[in-house]
UniProtKB/TrEMBL annotation:
Pfam families, per database record: Sugar_tr
The keyword DNA-binding is assigned to this record: no
Protein name per UniProt: Major facilitator superfamily (MFS) profile domain-containing protein
Organism of derivation: Pieris macdunnoughi
Keyword Transferase: no
Membrane topology: Multi-pass membrane protein
Entries under PANTHER family matching the protein: GH07001P-RELATED (PTHR48021:SF1), PTHR48021
GO MF annotations in UniProt: transmembrane transporter activity
Subcellular location, record wording: Membrane
Record-linked Gene3D superfamilies: MFS general substrate transporter like domains
Transmembrane segments: 44-65, 134-162, 174-196, 203-225, 231-249
Length: 296
């Protein structure tokens, strides 16, 4: 979640949704596919060693990247914000106007806040935000998004799909099914880049989320009530494939975009900590794990 939120600060608003979907959805799905294939072809120890490479790169990148101009401006570091802004953008009248508007807006916010308190501390801003109803709406939205992603199988979906298809067909060729199932996910993630550019976030989430939920119910019903005889297994496989495509084309990328943009910029670190703690360490994930997808 932290990476997703940080990415948004560096993307141009005109291409933000498209670029964010490509980075967070397509990129992560390709990485998952690569990990699955490597685990089947190599010993897990070698896979773990290979995994140290991207982990090491992710540790080194923050040492060299330019700090977010928006974040610097919200903390009153306007000269550094201007320098960082021109490091990330080419000189133009539009960019000049955008920078001036950013600095002017943050200075106005700072003056208004200092009229209420004598400090500009982010923690004090967080305490003030906690008194507002809108902020708790943001927290509730973040928790609901986290719960939905867990219930929809964001982490376990493709592992479970491989097991399901293998049991349905009775074939032990795991590598083939890994490529096929992950291929559905990559196709859906790539499709999301077009959909988030073409349709509004609200409409896309409503339509794709409804379809995905219906497909998930149909998949569950078919696994319980439809026998693995004649051509019936292909119905189950088709439903699983459609679900993998729809969930990666709509709900997952849209919810990632929403989660990345709802946080107030000046207290973003506190919001990330609070939502992350409630979502990943709270009762929701534990309940789903015990009573839902992990129950045989």
């Amino acid at each position: 979640m932290l990476v997703s939120v940080c990415i948004v600060e560096y993307l141009d608003p005109n291409v933000r949704q498209y670029a964010f979907s490509f980075i967070s959805s397509v990129g992560s799905q390709v990485g998952v596919t690569l990990g699955h294939v490597l685990c089947l072809l190599m010993d897990w120890r070698y896979v773990a060693l290979i995994g140290l490479v991207p982990t090491g790169i992710s540790c080194l990148i923050p040492l060299f990247w330019t700090e977010s101009p928006s974040w610097l401006a919200t903390h009153g570091r306007f000269e550094e914000s201007e320098e960082a802004f021109w490091t990330l953008h080419a000189q133009s009248d539009i960019r000049e106007s955008e920078l001036r508007e950013l600095i002017s807006h943050e200075k106005q916010k700072k003056r208004e806040f200092l009229m209420q308190t004598n400090t500009n501390s982010a923690f004090v801003k967080f305490l003030f935000a906690c008194k507002e109803v809108y902020y708790w709406r943001i927290i509730i939205i973040g928790v609901i998004i986290g719960a939905y992603r867990a219930a929809a199988g964001r982490i376990l979906l493709f592992t479970l799909a491989l097991t399901l298809i293998q049991e349905i067909t009775g074939d032990s060729d795991i590598l083939l099914y890994t490529i096929v199932v992950d291929g559905f996910g990559i196709f859906g993630a790539a499709l999301s880049c077009f959909l988030v550019k073409r349709f509004s976030i609200r409409r896309l989430l409503l339509v794709s989320g409804s379809i995905a939920n219906i497909l998930l119910l149909l998949v569950s019903a078919s696994l319980y009530f439809v026998p693995n005889e004649e051509w019936y297994p292909w119905i189950k496989i088709l439903l699983i494939a459609c679900y993998c495509i729809i969930i990666n084309a709509g709900p997952y990328p849209v919810l990632d975009i929403v989660l990345a943009e709802i946080h107030p910029l000046d207290i973003k670190e506190f919001s990330i900590f609070l939502i992350g703690g409630l979502t990943h360490n709270g009762p929701t994930s534990s309940l789903i794990a015990e009573k839902g997808v992990l129950q045989p």
